[in-house]
Amino acid sequence: MGNEKNWPVLNFAEMQDTIETLHQWIQIVGKIRLKTMPWQNHSWHTTLYITPTGYSTNAISFEGRIFQIDFNFKTHKLLIQCSNAETVTMDLKPRTVASFYEELFEKLASIGLAIRIHASPNEMEPAIPFAENVINKAYNPEVANALWRAMVKVNAVFLEFRSEFIGKASPVHLFWGAFDLAVTRFSGKPAPLHQGGMPNMPLDVMQEAYSQEVCSAGFWPGSKDSPIPVFYAYAYPSDARFGEQKVLPKEAFYSPEMGEFFLKYEDVQTSDNPEKNLHDFLQTTYIAATKTSKWDRTSLEKM
C-alpha cells in the first residue's frame, strides 16, 4: 500500500482506461441510490461517499429494509449488504460495463431488491446504454486503489474545511456524474436561474442544483480531453472580478474559459505540506468568492 503519510502519485496516462470504466460503474451504483432515496436539495441524495475501503452509497432505506453498496478497493470486490439478506459480492476486475451492469442487477434481484434505473450515463458523451457498453472494460487494481487513497487524503482536508463554516454547506461527497469529490458552501441567498449546459443532464435538475448562491470546490481525476487530475473552485453566480483575486498556493491559476480556479493535484502531492497547500487553495478561493459576491462572512463562519 505504500507509506500512508504520503499522497499517492496519480499519472492520468496510466490511469485513463481504469478511470473511464470506474466512471461508468459508479454511475450505475449512483443511479441505484438516486432511484431509492428521497429527494434532497441540490441532488445530495444521489452521491457516494469515501470509506476506509473505497466508495459507498451509505445506508439506503427501501421497502422496509436497509441496503448498502460498497466498492472495496482493497479486496477489489463490490459488496451488497441488506438488513434481511446475506451479503452478496461481485469481483471488481477487467470486465465490460455491460457485464458489470448485468451481474449487479442479477445480484440485487437475488436478495429481493427489485430496482430499475435510467440505464444510460449522465454528464458524458456518448451516453452508451450500460447494457450495450462493451467498450469500457479496463480495471487495474493498483490504479483503482491509488485513486481511492488520493480521495481519502482529499476527503480529510475537505472535511476540515467544511467544519469551519456554520452556514449551509453540503456534505463532502462523490458525484458520479462527473466523478468529482466536492464540497459546497452557500451564502444563504437565492441565485439567478441557471442556464444548464451539461450533456445528458435535465435542465430542471441543474437549475435546482444552482438555485442558491454557492462557492464550490472539488477534486477531479481528469478525462481524455483534460488529462490532468486537478482541484477546482468556482462561484455561482460569479462576479467578473472573481478571477482577478490572488489565491494560494502560488501554483494555483484561473481559467477564463472555465470560469474557475485550478490547482494541479501533482503540485499538492509533491509539496512539503500537501494538506496545508490544499486548505490554502480552498480558503483563498472561498475568500475570493465572498469578497467579489459580497457574502456576509460574519454570519457564516466560526469567529
Overview features:
22% strand; 31% helix; 303 residues; Ava_C0101 and related proteins; 12 strands; globular; 6 helices; six-stranded antiparallel β-sheet; DUF5996; alpha+beta
Please, could you describe this protein's structure?
With 303 residues, the protein is of the alpha+beta class. It has two domains: 12-132; 143-299. It is 31% helix and 22% strand. The strands form two sheets. Strands 1, 2, 3, 4, 5 and 6 form a six-stranded antiparallel sheet that branches. Strands 7-8-9-10-12-11 form a six-stranded antiparallel sheet. Strand 3 (60-62) and strand 4 form a beta hairpin. The termini are far apart. It comes from Aequorivita antarctica. This is Ava_C0101 and related proteins. It holds the Pfam family DUF5996.
Topology readout:
Layout: H1 12-36, E1 49-50, E2 54-56, E3 60-62, E4 65-72, E5 77-82, E6 85-91, H2 97-110, H3 141-163, E7 173-175, E8 180-190, H4 203-209, E9 212-220, E10 230-236, E11 253-255, E12 260-264, H5 265-269, H6 274-293
Antiparallel strand pairs: 1-2, 2-4, 3-4, 4-5, 5-6, 7-8, 8-9, 9-10, 10-12, 11-12
Helix pairs in contact: 3-6
Q: What oligomeric state do these chains adopt?
A: single chain
Distance between the termini: 40 Å
Query: DSSP helix count?
Result: 6
Strand residues, percent: 15-25%
The topology string of helices and strands comes to HEEEEEEHHEEHEEEEHH
Helix content: 25-40%
Number of strands: 12
Briefly note the structural class of the backbone.
Answer: alpha+beta
Pfam family, one: DUF5996
InterPro entries: DUF5996 (IPR046038)
Protein name: Ava_C0101 and related proteins
